[in-house]
């Protein structure tokens, strides 16, 4: 049962007690603004508990009851509110309340997500797990081209680091560290490239041109000689 449904159920139980009371003027306090807003919502797909509350309110109104609702801030040390929360929690475990389809669907989705996340957490040898450890959506850029460039940088598939696979060449190597060149190495691991980035040196080529599609007629990369040790960041700018 969700927090909203729990608050709505508490309001419903309070109205049911009011129905058998001899008094006619009541104020129902709740710390759930969303519950109060749902009672005033005009959407067609209302929650069944909301419909039940509205029907009961109409019945109470016909019997001459005067009922108002008042919102109080929750979890700020109001003694009466804290006691009401504790009573609601203890009662919710013993209530035989039918489960709404929307609540059941949300519960199933949360369970599937948790199982999916547990399965993904075990894929430690998958390089995409290191890049995106949580099964949540990446924030997309509204313009497709920059979004494609950003995605390629995230997964590390760029023209500089992977074109050798299409052209049948040897993989590029960092001139300073003598290890395979990758986006992770260029941006984070290589001390020379990170120094160039943090010092604010400008690149001659934009990221969009850096990540352009590989054409079959593109010539091979210029290989730096041992006497000309080029910074990985400069190499990115010069070759893309």
TrEMBL record:
Task: Please state what the protein is called.
Answer: Putative RNA-directed DNA polymerase from transposon X-element
Q: Name one GO molecular function term.
A: ATP binding
Question: Source organism lineage?
Answer: Eukaryota, Metazoa, Ecdysozoa, Arthropoda, Chelicerata
The signal peptide, as residue positions, is 1-16
Ranges for domain RNase H type-1: 1-93
Superkingdom of this protein's organism:
Eukaryota
Q: Which Pfam families match?
A: RNase_H (PF00075)
Q: Which Gene3D superfamilies does this chain map to?
A: Ribonuclease H-like superfamily/Ribonuclease H (3.30.420.10)
Q: Keyword Repeat, does the record have it?
A: no
